[in-house]
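re the bet — no i am not wrong, look at it urself. input seq straight from the record:
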Amino acid sequence: MKKIYIYTSSDRITPFIDFWDSLNDKQQKKLEYALKSMALSTGKLSEPQVKHFSIERYRRLYELREKAQVLLRIIFTLDKHDNIILLSPFIKRHKRNTSQALENSLKMLEDIQKNPAALREYVFSARGCGK
């Protein structure tokens, strides 16, 4: 089983937790199911649920895609052990939302390289999001 990590900025902001808290129960359940499926997957992550970006600048990044009343998206990457690192979550309303999230994700990756402690393991709990 793959581990899932979430990013926490130096000022203790955790984008994934903030995003999770903004979702309703149905959206949380769909997203939790998608994350568990990714963690349990032994094969290659592929469309339609996961999109791998082919542009050179974003080649390390993937997008988890889920639809639950709105289009839920999470930009993530894989570490050298194929563990999942959740970076920029967002609700897709415009094409530019993805571009902004990709740029934010690159900044987060830079921060992670400088400060590996910016990652903490995501743990599924009975309540849903592992806080």
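see?? Helices lie at 15-22, 25-40, 95-114. told u. also Strands lie at 4-7, 50-52, 61-68, 70-78, 84-92, 119-121. so pay up
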